[in-house]
Amino acid sequence: MTEPENAPREMHEGETLRLSDYADERGWVQNHDFLRCTIQGPALVVFGGTIVHSNQIDGFPDECFYDAGENRQRYPGAFFVHQCGFESCTFLNIGFTGR
């Protein structure tokens, strides 16, 4: 997996949005900060270098978190969320996976 080039950070506050609107052609979402946003799915997310603090997830852990195994290198169809921040956001119909 090659990371995309760094870009200026973009701030989103109080918005209802989908990660697909901010992803590049490879599925990377990078350099965005989300404060008090509602993040809508459906989506499968892999976090990398991302700060996640005081958020709510709509669902139980066994419904939202998928074990990918330690040796997995690829996640086809997932959004890679890299160098982003999520604070006081609500995730609706979102699944999470990764190492």
Describe the structure.
- The chain has 99 residues and is mainly beta.
- The chain has one domain (10-67, 77-98).
- The protein is built from one helix and eleven strands, in the order E-E-E-E-E-E-E-H-E-E-E-E.
- The chain has one helix at residues 61-64; strands spanning 10-13, 16-18, 28-30, 32-35, 38-48, 51-53, 56-57, 65-67, 79-82, 85-87, 90-98.
- The strands form two sheets. Strands 2, 3, 5, 7, 8, 9 and 11 form a seven-stranded parallel β-sheet that branches.
- The longest helix has 4 residues, at 61-64.
- The radius of gyration is 13 Å and the shape is globular.
- The model has no long low-confidence stretch (mean pLDDT 90).
Keywords:
mainly beta, single chain, four-stranded parallel sheet, globular, 99 residues, 1 helix
Helix-strand blueprint:
Elements: E1 10-13, E2 16-18, E3 28-30, E4 32-35, E5 38-48, E6 51-53, E7 56-57, H1 61-64, E8 65-67, E9 79-82, E10 85-87, E11 90-98
Parallel strand pairs: 1-4, 2-5, 3-9, 4-10, 5-9, 5-11, 6-10, 7-11, 8-11
How many helices? The count is: 1
Rounded to the nearest angstrom, the radius of gyration is 13 Å
Tell me how many strands there are: 11
* Cα shape: globular
Number of domains: 1
Distance between the terminal alpha carbons, to the nearest Å? 14 Å
Helicity level: under 10%
Largest sheet: 7 strands, parallel
